[in-house]
Amino acid sequence: MTSTTPTLNPVLRDFWTTQSRNKILYGGRASSKSWDAAGFAIYLANNYKLRFLCARQIQNKIAESVYALLKIQIERFGLQSRFRVLKDKIVNRVTGTEFIFYGLKNSVDEIKSLESIDVLWLEEAHALTEEQWEILEPTIRKEGSECWFIFNPNLYTDFVYQNFIVNPPPRTLVRKINFDENPFLSKTMLEVIDAAKERDEEAFEHVYLGVPRSDDDATVIKRSWIEASIDAHIKLGFEPEGMKRIGFDVADDGEDKCAMVYAHGSVAFWCDEWSAKEDELSKSCSRVYGEALNRDAHITYDSIGVGAFAGSKFGEINAERKTRIQYAKFNAGDSVHNPEKLYVEKITNKDYFSNIKAQSWWSLADRFRNTFNAIKRGEPFKPEKMISISSEMPYLEKLKTELSTPKRDFDNNGRVKVESKKDLAKREIKSPNLADAFVMAYAPINRSLLVGKNSGW
Hints:
It comes from Citrobacter arsenatis. This is PBSX family phage terminase large subunit. By secondary structure, this protein is α/β, with parallel strands linked by helices. The chain folds into two domains: about 10-185, Rossmann fold; about 225-450, Nucleotidyltransferase, domain 5 (2-Layer Sandwich). It has 17 helices and 18 strands. It has helices at about 15, 35-45, 65-75, 105-110, 130-140, 160-165, 185-200, 200-210, 225-230, 230-235, 280-295, 310-320, 350, 355-375, 395-405, 420-425, 435-440; strands at about 20-25, 50-55, 85, 90, 100-105, 120-125, 145-150, 170-175, 245-250, 255-265, 265-275, 300, 325-330, 340-345, 345-350, 390, 410, 415-420. The strands form four sheets. It has an eight-stranded mixed beta sheet. A six-stranded mixed beta sheet has the order 13-12-9-10-11-16, sandwiched between helices. It starts with 12 loop residues before the first helix and ends in a 15-residue tail after the last helix. About 40% of the residues are buried.
């Protein structure tokens, strides 16, 4: 092999030869992504001394890695004499380039100790979690090193899709490729793809065109419902009416953030989030109080843990002012609101929901679903049964992702509940602070339990 690049897919030549910290190659099946990555990796390995870390989420044996692809490309280019294909690694005899293989799920801590990695090749990168990336990124620290992300998108909310395609960091090269740019595709495969399109166009777009799925059927609120709600009050022609509320989610550890969301009736207009230590809770409460005062809104705050202090702080501020703000606590584990009221036919709130948190999330989900049906199907609903999010909402993409992330769960009595923060952490998902604040801005409350006095209503 000469020092020129090998004969691979010509449309990707510029992608591979352009130096960039992160290279994101994604799209549908049958697009030659991994094949081309293996070919270019062998080209580099045969011309330069490099160290490749080839990783994927789960790798119980070497056959589950890109090991086989690399071996095929070595044979394809006639380079068997220049490479040693060992049981657990591949080495170029001449340049000294080394390919090593790891599964992230079981070995991510071991990877931290690796040195002198030139290329991190993440295959099936859609499964990478934020926590894993926080470990991997500083590990790939050699000058001029690159990180290759190769994947077929799964969910729009996946960490990799959100952080490398929707909002890519600096020095990131993103390229989408599908089967229609693969010149090596067989006639048989083209017929398979055509049949898939005829059978189910939505599934075809996901599998072969690399369109991420908006909805995870296991989540409480589907992303497609949220997308439909953006500026729904403008599209459907209704005005914000009713209570003005601010939901306040209090940070409960050093890595967590405080968040607040402002809503007027069925329209959510604004949000904010910020880092604050436990000893800065007083400042955070003053910040929220100030927004409530400016917007003539009352506050619903998270009263669990350190948030228990918030109520007394709001009381102190009220005592110092002639204008007073109303506030109410929200304890996710409390009993449901209107327990004897029927939620669905023959099933009361207390028999359907595990706690007030579940009831609040489901109530919000119902409003999002109604809005989706009104926008997409023309079904009639009263504004108070719907919800709209202003397109001017700060952190809009993050909010949409957080709202569509928690999954349904059930308690021991079969009542529905929302995936806990501990269970989210097991999926390596951080606390959805904006979403929690949003839910609190719409949580059912008993007005008689509001503290303070507000002349606005």
